[in-house]
């Protein structure tokens, strides 16, 4: 049974539809990347599935309950959402920022338990920010700040992780570190991970499934080897590409070539 499901959802900003008649389901324990050109609806779709924005039409479900009827705290216990460019509240240390992830689990007193403190410590260690614990969060570099936000997401200890461009501001070594961490959470802790990625080669390396969007609709939804193909890269991104297979992982990777006119057909 899907853990998350969308039925013919439509999302519009004012009079402009961003997502159109989109249907999909997400199974428990999968690692999924949403890819597509700028403006294709990736971030909007992620927010909709997390109950962050209102649907113009259609329905979105979490655990077979329509998400608009699920309370925000109950949703947060099941689903962590890291937006693309979160704002750091002024005056918070890194540890205080990470501790915000425990909010859905606090009782009516608002006081953190020993279990909460352990979850915070574990999350900071996993995201490699423990040595930054006392630093003011607003003084961190872009990469350090991104890892602190990821630590906050992990401290939430939800079974579903939604991340909008989690590798933003990170150099390649830290990108790999973060994606290795998310894969570890997926493989060893059965977390369901859904993330927006711009780097299609990284999406192919780490994902069980890639959903490629264009113009607010799903153009391709399959395993990396069935999505990272010359035809789909031409249709979705308008590029000519040379496809290779990683001998160690069996995953596809590509070398981009020249730009091509976007085709209008949607066959894959």
UniProtKB/TrEMBL annotation:
An example of a Gene Ontology BP annotation on this entry? iron ion transport
Statement: the UniProt record of this protein carries the keyword Repressor: no
Gene3D superfamilies from the UniProt entry: P-loop containing nucleotide triphosphate hydrolases
The record's CDD domains line, in alphabetical order, gives: ABC_Iron-Siderophores_B12_Hemin
Where does the source fall among the domains of life? Answer: Bacteria
What are the ABC transporter domain coordinates in residue numbering?
Answer: 4-240
Q: Which coarse location class applies to the principal site listed for this UniProt protein?
A: membrane
* EC number(s) reported in the record: 3.6.3.34
The answer to keyword Cell membrane applying to this record is yes
**Where's it found, cell-wise?**
Cell membrane
**Which UniProt keywords are listed?**
ATP-binding, Cell membrane, Hydrolase, Ion transport, Iron, Iron transport, Membrane, Nucleotide-binding, Transport
Picking any one GO molecular function of the record gives: ATP hydrolysis activity
Tell me any Pfam family this protein matches.
ABC_tran
Q: Which SUPFAM superfamilies does this entry report, sorted A to Z? A: P-loop containing nucleoside triphosphate hydrolases
Per the record, the similarity remark reads: Belongs to the ABC transporter superfamily.
Protein name in the entry? Iron complex transport system ATP-binding protein
Species of origin reads Acetobacter senegalensis
């Amino acid at each position: 049974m899907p853990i998350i499901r969308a039925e013919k959802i439509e999302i519009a900003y004012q009079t402009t539809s961003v997502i159109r008649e989109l249907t999909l389901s997400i199974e428990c324990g999968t690692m999924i990347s949403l890819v597509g050109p700028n403006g294709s609806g990736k971030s909007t779709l992620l927010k909709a599935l997390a109950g962050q924005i209102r649907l113009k039409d259609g329905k979105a479900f979490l655990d077979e309950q329509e998400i608009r009827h699920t309370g925000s705290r109950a949703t947060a216990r099941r689903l962590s959402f890291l937006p693309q460019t979160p704002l750091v509240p002024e005056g918070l240390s890194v540890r205080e920022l990470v501790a915000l992830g425990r909010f859905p689990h606090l009782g009516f007193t608002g006081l953190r338990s020993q279990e909460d403190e352990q979850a915070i410590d574990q999350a900071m260690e996993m995201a490699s920010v423990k040595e930054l614990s006392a630093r003011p969060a607003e003084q961190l570099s872009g990469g350090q700040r991104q890892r602190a936000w990821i630590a906050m997401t992990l401290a939430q200890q939800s079974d579903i992780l939604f991340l909008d461009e989690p590798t933003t501001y990170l150099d390649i070594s830290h990108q790999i570190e973060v994606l290795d961490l998310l894969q570890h959470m997926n493989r060893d802790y059965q977390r369901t991970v859904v993330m927006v990625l711009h780097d299609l080669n990284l999406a192919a390396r780490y994902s069980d499934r890639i959903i490629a969007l264009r113009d607010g609709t799903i153009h391709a939804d399959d395993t990396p080897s069935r999505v990272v193909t010359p035809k789909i890269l031409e249709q979705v991104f308008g590029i000519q590409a040379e496809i290779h297979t990683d001998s160690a992982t069996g995953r596809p990777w590509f070398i981009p070539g020249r730009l091509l006119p976007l085709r209008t057909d949607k066959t894959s």
